[in-house]
Design goal:
This protein is α/β, with parallel strands linked by helices. It has 2 domains: about 120 residues, P-loop containing nucleotide triphosphate hydrolases (Rossmann fold, 3-Layer(aba) Sandwich); about 80 residues, no CATH class. The protein is built from 11 helices and 5 strands. A 5-stranded parallel sheet has the order 2-3-1-4-5. It starts with 7 loop residues before the first strand and ends in a 6-residue tail after the last helix. The relative contact order is 0.16.
Length: about 240
């Protein structure tokens, strides 16, 4: 059946920046509402703009689209405090089973990313490693995104979504992309069922804490200086602050 959505929907995230949350919510929405959903990283060989209603990109690149196609889209993009992206990466990359973490790499002397991270002693040095490597790349990707000022896309902070118990932000999000009436209500139920503030939300590998952690719990003055030197203006450009 043809979609009754006014525009195609695109959802962009980054590694450790709401990827599992958004993928889960919008995949479930597509099933419940009968929309065609595609994860561009997993199914890019099947990309057909006309065949799908909802496009998900966990690197926020949308490289398969041309300008004419993007003009027909409405978007959602997730941001996260860049300081906490690195903290989350330190914890997650030491225990996750994602394939890329277990591939031996010449630049690490034949160690895998996970082995290299595990070989570094102390949280401070592990955090610096992440800032110079995978987490740092994610932070730069977020900076690049906000610098483009996409008029068809609205940014939402992961920290705000994690505490959106009244579903006000989710309501805005779903209205933004064109859901209304009974479909909007179904979307809100799906969002609640898959949010950490739901008391019945199951413990999952990608969730380390149900609470929004504060960067000051992990950064001292030296680490603050190290972050600022690597990512000039990133905190402010992404809508956060040093207070």
């Amino acid at each position: 059946m043809p979609s009754d959505l006014p525009r195609k929907i695109v959802i962009g995230t980054h590694h450790k920046v709401g990827t599992v949350l958004m993928n889960t919510i919008f995949r479930r929405i597509s099933t419940v509402l009968g929309k065609k959903y595609i994860n561009l990283q997993l199914d890019n060989d099947r990309f057909d703009f006309d065949a799908y209603d909802i496009f998900f990109d966990w690197h926020s690149k949308f490289q398969s689209f041309d300008d004419t196609q993007l003009a027909q889209c409405i978007g959602i993009h997730i941001l996260r405090d860049p300081r906490m992206v690195a903290v989350s990466a330190v914890f997650y990359h030491q225990r996750a089973d994602e394939h890329w973490l277990h591939v031996p790499m010449p630049k690490y002397g034949g160690l895998t990313y996970q082995q290299k991270l595990a070989s570094i002693e102390g949280f401070r040095d592990k955090l610096l490693f992440e800032l110079d490597d995978h987490a740092g790349a994610t932070i730069r990707d977020m900076q690049d995104w906000v610098g483009r000022n996409y008029s068809w896309c609205h940014d939402y902070k992961l920290e705000d979504l994690m505490t959106d118990e009244g579903l006000d932000l989710y309501h805005h999000m779903f209205r933004h992309v064109g859901f209304k009436g009974g479909d909007l209500l179904k979307c809100l139920i799906i969002a609640f069922n898959n949010s950490v503030f739901n008391p019945h939300f199951p413990d999952r590998q990608h969730i380390r804490s149900r609470e929004v952690e504060h960067w000051r719990d992990y950064y001292d003055a030296e680490l603050i200086d190290a972050f600022k030197a690597r990512f000039v203006g990133a905190v402010e450009n992404l809508g956060y602050n040093w207070d």
